[in-house]
Amino acid sequence: MRTRFPATDPYDSGMLDVGDGHRVYWECCGNPDGRPAIYLHGGPGSGCTPGQRRFFDEDAYRVVLFDQRGSGRSRPLASDPDADLSTNTTAHLIADIEALRELHGVESWTVVGMSWGTTLGLAYAQAHPQRVNGLVLALVTTTSRREVEWITRDVGRIFPQEWDRFSAAVPDTLRHLPLVDAYGRLLLDADPAVSERAAREWCAWEDVHVSLAIGHRPDPRYEDPEFRLRFARLVTHYWRNAAFLEEEQLLRDASTLDGIPGILIHGRYDVSSPLETAWRLSQNWTTSRLHVLDDSGHGGDAFTAVIIDALAQFAAK
């Protein structure tokens, strides 16, 4: 089984002013003359990490990683007391990716994403198919209203005790709302005690519904109050708006990607994002191939080898 490549440092990095008061952090790693690629982190709101560089062969790839609006080293952060999320939408993120492509003089590149990064990668590729020469997407999601309803309500049938705690944290005054909307309001409450409790309960639920991954351990990032608030605010912002896309838009328009090779990687035991979405996407996108990991959930070490193999296939072309 392939392991991740050795840790590398960026050979270039910077902050890009993308307008609307946002500055996006970016970094370049690998071979400046290698195959261009862009990595789209999950969350939304998690930011990119040094470990994500290690999916890429530094001799073969020139990879751009960046912190999406409101996250990581980008500014302003979604956790700021006066955070305004109105200019943080999928369309804005797609425009940011295009601005990064132009900044780095890339004609077309390979798009790599995991979890939320697959939603963003599909949306970007469908908006700019001429700028994409391949996609590697793991833990496939499209952030449809149906998927959001599953992950915030229906999956509670598998984790009833944890879901009861998650739902009970919503006060009676907001019980008439879908959970994602109620949490969205709580997380933006002017009272720090209210928003902090909501962030803590939201992230506790996040750890539950991904817990069927083999060897799952609680995410240590959730121990950081600032990260919890930033992450939870951005996740609920995108989820309550179904990624600012038409319902099932990414599945409906998947055929626009025909001719672009895609490798989809998904765990059979992924109850956070059931396999159905990846399967339907593969059926509508004729030049994609679905790789199902029979012993994996929403994450796990088994994904590493498959992602690295997929990137090696593209680099060899």
Uncertain spans, ≥5 residues at pLDDT below 50? none
CATH H level of the largest domain: which superfamily? Alpha/Beta hydrolase fold, catalytic domain
- Domains, number: 2
CATH class of the largest domain: Alpha Beta
The coarse overall form would be globular
Approximately how much helix is present in the residues? 25-40%
CATH architecture heading of the largest domain: 3-Layer(aba) Sandwich
Structural class: alpha/beta
Compressed to H and E, one letter per element, the order equals EEEHEHEHEHHHHHHEHEH
Largest sheet: 8 strands, mixed
Report how far the terminal alpha carbons are from each other: 22 Å
The average pLDDT score comes to 96
How many strand elements?
8
Per the CATH scheme, the topology name of the largest domain is Rossmann fold
Strand order of the largest sheet: 1-2-4-3-5-6-7-8
Oligomer: single chain
Instruction: Assess the beta-strand content as a share of residues.
Output: 15-25%
Provide a count of the helices.
11
Radius of gyration: 19 Å
Please give a handful of descriptors for the protein shown.
317 residues, alpha/beta, Rossmann fold, 11 helices
List the helices and strands and how they pair.
Layout: E1 12-19, E2 22-30, E3 35-40, H1 50-53, E4 61-66, H2 90-103, E5 109-114, H3 116-127, E6 132-138, H4 145-152, H5 160-168, H6 179-187, H7 192-209, H8 225-240, H9 249-252, E7 262-267, H10 276-284, E8 288-293, H11 302-315
